[in-house]
Design brief:
Helices cover 34% and strands 21% of the residues. The strands form 5 sheets. Strands 13-14-15-17-16 form a 5-stranded mixed barrel. It has a 4-stranded parallel sheet with strand order 1-2-3-4, sandwiched between helices. Helix 12 runs parallel beside helix 13. The longest helix has 22 residues. The structure holds iron/sulfur cluster (SF4). Iron/sulfur cluster binds next to helix 6.
Length: 445
């Protein structure tokens, strides 16, 4: 989400007449987009700002954006007086005006008071970094207030874009050649079309049915708002990717309650049963936190049994660490760091075991893979399957495919974190093979 915010900010600046440079030394204005998801984020930001200090004599201007900007606010001016602008993400739609004030010489510009806005940051000038796969933010902010999370405090209240505006952006992307679109939102499936025209599932289908679209993804979903029609939409619409990221955070209902997640283990497992009952083989991934205050050995064991029951395709697990201004900071029964590390290790070992076994189901399958890069040391192409798995494959039968193309790959080996295969020349790949031959001919002439 933060990376996509940067794409939108860059596009907005370019539209205002700024040109992007690769090195800080060549810049007149340095914008530092911050994220507070990691531990000690604010210390890291101030450390980096300290490094900018030496550049201030060169007449450069500095702006701090994002969650740490929102969280630390005007304190940033005190600690780093050479910073001229501090803005949270809910204020980005005011960037053109803030930039004008900056150019006019104002020294303390803030965008910190917009968290209660109903407006979203919509721009037609997004500078997307990948020409094939692009993001669309459909919902901003969060009203869930999980006990450990800063997002509702930094990104403001939940607000959705109209389905009409999302569809216009998606159509423009297709016209530009994008074939994969990923919907973004802190809770993407909490989407509520302000015009009341479409549900989240209907919007997924509408974008999936745009001519030229090959893949539609969405992240991150919240179990509380996860409805059965999302699974139905995936079953009915081939372009919707067969992957759902549904963070559970803990397998223990007691810990989920302490986290204010507003669902139980049973509620979550019911949603898993809907996904597993789908006609398509939908991969399931999750985020997990270990060592939340008060998590007992028995609670942790429930996380381990849940992982075994769901058989996730991937788990992103983290040790709990407190975030400023969140209820979890003051919770009793904190878990010693060594115990958190031990639980994290046990969880990841178990998950690796599951992936080693569970990925075996793909052996011998033909999978459609979107090409992402080339690994010369292994002479392999690296791509991604609809299930969002990395596929490393050889191209013995065909010419090397371009980035962004789609190929059929036969899976010949499965490893715990990726699939290995061989590309097969098929109807999708043939036009490219022909093009290569023409190009060779031209070169020879
Ligand atoms: S739902 Fe997600 S973004 Fe919102 S508070 Fe909970 S963890 Fe944070």
């Amino acid at each position: 989400m933060n990376a996509h915010d940067s794409e939108k900010v860059i596009g907005t600046l370019e539209q205002q007449g700024y040109a992007r440079v690769q090195e800080e030394d060549a810049a007149g204005l340095i914008l530092y987009n911050t994220c507070s998801i990691r531990d000690k984020a604010e210390q890291k930001v101030f450390h980096r700002l300290n490094e900018y200090k030496k550049l201030q004599g060169e007449g450069k201007k500095f702006a701090v954006l994002g969650c740490v900007a929102q969280q630390e606010g005007e304190k940033i001016f005190e600690k780093a007086p050479y910073v001229s602008m501090v803005a949270g993400s809910a204020s980005y739609r005011n960037l053109p005006e803030m930039l004008r004030r900056l150019e006019a010489g104002e020294e303390r510009i803030t965008g910190l008071d917009d968290r209660q806005t109903d407006l979203t940051f919509e721009t037609e000038f997004t500078a997307r970094s990948n020409p094939h796969r692009g993001y669309i933010t459909i919902i901003e902010g969060c009203d869930k207030f999980c006990a450990y999370c800063v997002v509702p405090y930094t990104r403001g209240k939940e607000r959705s874009r109209t389905a009409a505006s999302v569809l216009v952006e998606a159509k423009k992307m297709v016209d530009l050649g994008f074939t994969e679109i990923q919907f973004l939102g802190q809770n993407v499936n909490s989407y509520r079309d302000p015009s009341g025209r479409m549900s989240f599932a209907e919007l997924l289908v509408a974008v999936g049915e745009l001519p030229g679209i090959r893949r539609v993804r969405f992240t991150t979903s919240h179990p509380r708002d996860f409805t059965r029609d999302i699974v139905q939409a995936i079953d009915d619409t081939p372009t919707l990717c067969d992957h759902i990221h549904l963070p559970v955070q803990s397998g223990s209902s007691a810990v989920l309650k302490a986290m204010s997640r507003e669902y139980t283990r049973e509620w979550y497992l019911e949603r898993m049963s809907w996904i597993k009952a789908a006609k398509r083989d939908i991969s399931i991934t999750s985020d997990m936190i270990v060592g939340f205050p008060g998590e007992t050995d028995a609670d942790f064991e429930e996380t381990i049994t849940l992982v075994g029951e769901v058989k996730y395709d991937a788990v992103f697990a983290f040790k709990f660490s407190p975030r400023p201004n969140t209820p979890a900071v003051t919770m009793a029964d904190s878990i010693p760091d060594e115990l958190k590390s031990e639980r994290l290790r046990i969880l990841m070992d178990r998950q690796r075991e599951i992936q080693r076994e569970h990925y075996g189901r793909h052996l011998g399958e033909m999978q459609e893979v979107m090409v992402e890069s080339y690994n010369p040391s292994r002479n392999q192409v690296v791509g991604r399957s609809s299930q969002n798995k990395t596929v490393n494959f050889s191209t013995a039968q065909i010419a090397q495919p371009p980035i962004g193309s789609y190929l059929s790959v036969r899976i010949t080996q499965t490893l715990p974190n990726c699939l290995v295969g061989e590309a097969i020349a098929d109807a999708e790949a043939l036009p490219f093979v022909a093009l290569q031959r023409v190009a060779d001919f031209v070169v020879l002439n």
